[in-house]
Write a structure and sequence with these properties.
Helix content: under 10%
Radius of gyration: 20 Å
Oligomer: single chain
Number of helices: 1
Length: 384
C-alpha cells in the first residue's frame, strides 16, 4: 500500500565543522573537509550516517536512532526522547568550515517525532542508502518493530519487518519543505538498499538476504532509474550463473559476499579504477572496519582487509569499557576520491552508559588510505 506524507518539519540545529586532516597524508595533499557532528540545539547523538551528495559541496546525511531535546539541552541524560531517525544537510566550502543543519519532525512538541515517521511507536524506520535522480530523491528504509517480550533496556530488542522506499519529489528544497511518499518494497527476508550505486543504465541495489538471526548473504538487484516510481514490476536479481532474472531473489541468487551485512557502502574510486565495499568485519561485535575491492560492481570481491581498528574497543584506550561496541562503518566518497572518508559510531550494551557518555553514540570521522587488495579479473561474459 502506498502512503503519501507531507512532512511538516522545523529546521533544528546548526553546527560548524572543521578540517579533518588525512592520516599520514603528505604535506602537499589537501586536507579533507567534513562536518564534525557536534551536539547542538537539541541534537544529542545518532548512528547510521549514510550520506548522499545533492550538489557540489552539499550532502544529505541520514541518521538512525537520534537523541533529541530542547534547543538548549546539552546532555543526553536530559533528552526529551529518542526519535528513530533524523536527517542533516551539510555544506562544505573549500578552505572553510562546514555547516550542518539537523531536521526531525515536531521538535518543539513534548514528544518530537522521527523525520521519516510511521505514526506509531511500535514500528519505525532506519534509513539505508539512497540516491538523487534529477530533483527526486529516493531513500531505502529498513522497517523495524519491537521484538516480542523485549525489555526497554535490551539494546537488541528489535527485529526486521521488511523495507520501504521513500520518494522525495522536491529534494532540492529544505527538508522542512519536503513532500515524502512511502511505499512497500520487500518483506522480512530481503533488506534492499544496504548500498545503492549507478551502473550504466541501471541502479544496483545491494541487498541482504536474511537466513535467520546473524545469518545471510549480500546479493544484487537492479532497476532502471525511470522505473523507481513503481519498482515492484521492474526488479531483476543476479543469479548464480551471472544472469539477470526478472523478479526478486530466490534460492539461485548470487552470493556477492557471504556475510550478513545490514549496513555498508559500495563506491567507485576512479583514481584506482576499483569498487570499494566498506563495512564492519564478519565477526560480531567487530572491532574493525574492513574493505573489499573489485573491478566490477558485481565482483568478484577480494577477501576483507582490515583498514581501521576501532580505538574505543581496545583495552589500552583511556575510557575503555568492555560493553562498548562500534559499527556503522560507511564511506563518503563525495568528500575525497583519493582516500577513504569514513564514519562509524559506537554504542554500549548498557543503556545507562549511552545516556551518560557523550563521547560515544555520534558519527566519528577518520580519513584512511585506500586498501591495496588484489582482485581476480572478471570475465564479462559471465555477467549479462
Amino acid at each position: 500500500m502506498k502512503r503519501i506524507l507531507t512532512v511538516p518539519l522545523l529546521l533544528f540545529g546548526t553546527l560548524l565543522g572543521q578540517l579533518s586532516p588525512a592520516a599520514n597524508a603528505s604535506d602537499s595533499e589537501k586536507q579533507t573537509l567534513l562536518p564534525e557532528f557536534n551536539y547542538t540545539r537539541g541534537w544529542l547523538g545518532a548512528d547510521d550516517a549514510y550520506s548522499i551528495p545533492l550538489a557540489p559541496g552539499k550532502s544529505l546525511w541520514l541518521f538512525g536512532d537520534t537523541f533529541v531535546g530542547g534547543e538548549n539541552t546539552e546532555l543526553r541524560s536530559q533528552s526529551t526522547t529518542m526519535v528513530r531517525n533524523s536527517v542533516g544537510i551539510s555544506v562544505c566550502k573549500p578552505n572553510a568550515s562546514c555547516t550542518l543543519r539537523y531536521f526531525w519532525t515536531r521538535p518543539d512538541d513534548p514528544k518530537p517525532r522521527s523525520f521519516f515517521d510511521t505514526g506509531t511507536d511500535d514500528l519505525w524506520y532506519w534509513p539505508l542508502d539512497g540516491f538523487l535522480e534529477g530533483k527526486t530523491l529516493y531513500v531505502a528504509l529498513l522497517v523495524i518493530r519491537n521484538k516480542p517480550g523485549a525489555k526497554p533496556t535490551d539494546v537488541f530488542g528489535f527485529e526486521i519487518a521488511g523495507t520501504k522506499l521513500a520518494t522525495i519529489s522536491n529534494a532540492h528544497a529544505s527538508p522542512d519543505k519536503w513532500h515524502v511518499a512511502i511505499q512497500d518494497l520487500t518483506d522480512t527476508q530481503l533488506w534492499a538498499g544496504v548500498s545503492i550505486v549507478r551502473d550504466g543504465d541501471y541502479l544496483i541495489w545491494y541487498s541482504q538476504v536474511s537466513e535467520g538471526e546473524g545469518r545471510g548473504y549480500l546479493t544484487a538487484l537492479r532497476i532502471p532509474p525511470n522505473k523507481m516510481a513503481a519498482p515492484s514490476s521492474a526488479w531483476e536479481y543476479l543469479s548464480k550463473d551471472g544472469q539477470w532474472v526478472a523478479g526478486l531473489p530466490h534460492g539461485d541468487a548470487m552470493h556477492l559476499i557471504d556475510q550478513p551485512i545490514s549496513e555498508m557502502t559500495i563506491r567507485f574510486h576512479p583514481s584506482i579504477h576499483k569498487w570499494i565495499a566498506l563495512s564492519g568485519g564478519p565477526e560480531f561485535p567487530s572491532p574493525r572496519a574492513v574493505a573489499r575491492s573489485a573491478d566490477s560492481p558485481l565482483g568478484p570481491w577480494s577477501a576483507p582487509q582490515t583498514i581501521y581498528e576501532f580505538p574505543e574497543m581496545k583495552t589500552a584506550t583511556p575510557g575503555y569499557y568492555k560493553d562498548t561496541f562500534c559499527y556503522a562503518a560507511k564511506e563518503h566518497i563525495e568528500f575525497t576520491e583519493s582516500r577513504i572518508a569514513m564514519t562509524y559510531a559506537c554504542n554500549s550494551l548498557v543503556v545507562a552508559k549511552v545516556m551518560a557518555n557523550m563521547n560515544i553514540y555520534r558519527p566519528k570521522v577518520v580519513i584512511l588510505d585506500l586498501p591495496k587488495c588484489k582482485v581476480r579479473s572478471l570475465n564479462p561474459s559471465n555477467l549479462r
